[in-house]
Design a protein that fits this description.
It catalyses: an acyl phosphate + H2O = a carboxylate + phosphate + H(+). Its EC number is 3.6.1.7. Keywords: Hydrolase. This is acylphosphatase. This protein has about 90 residues and is α+β, with helices and mostly antiparallel strands. The protein has one domain: 2-Layer Sandwich (Alpha-Beta Plaits). The chain has 2 helices and 5 strands, in the order E-H-E-E-H-E-E. It has a 5-stranded mixed β-sheet with strand order 4-1-3-2-5. A hairpin with a 5-residue loop joins strand 2 and strand 3.
Length: about 90
Amino acid sequence: MTQCYRAMVTGKVQGVSFRQAAREQALKRQITGHAVNLADGRVEVVMYGRREALAELCEWLWQGPPAAHVTHVGLEPLEMPSEGHTPADFTTR
C-alpha cells in the first residue's frame, strides 16, 4: 500500500549534495516525490512509496550524504493525492 510523508530535514543540509543523494536513495527504493531546498536552510522531502521503503529512506535522512550534519528530521503523514496525481519520479528542485 502506497503512503505519503513529508520530512523536514534540519542541520547542515544545503550545499552538501543532500537533495541529489536523497534522490538516489529514493530511486533505489522505488520511492517517488521530491527534495527541495527551503529559504530557511532546511530541505523538504516529500515521498510516496511502500511503508517499508519509506521507513528506510527516513532512516537514511538522519545520516544524509557524508558532508551533511543532520540535527533533526520532522516527519508528518500527508493525504495521498487522488489517483493519477502521484509523481512518477523523484525530482530535485
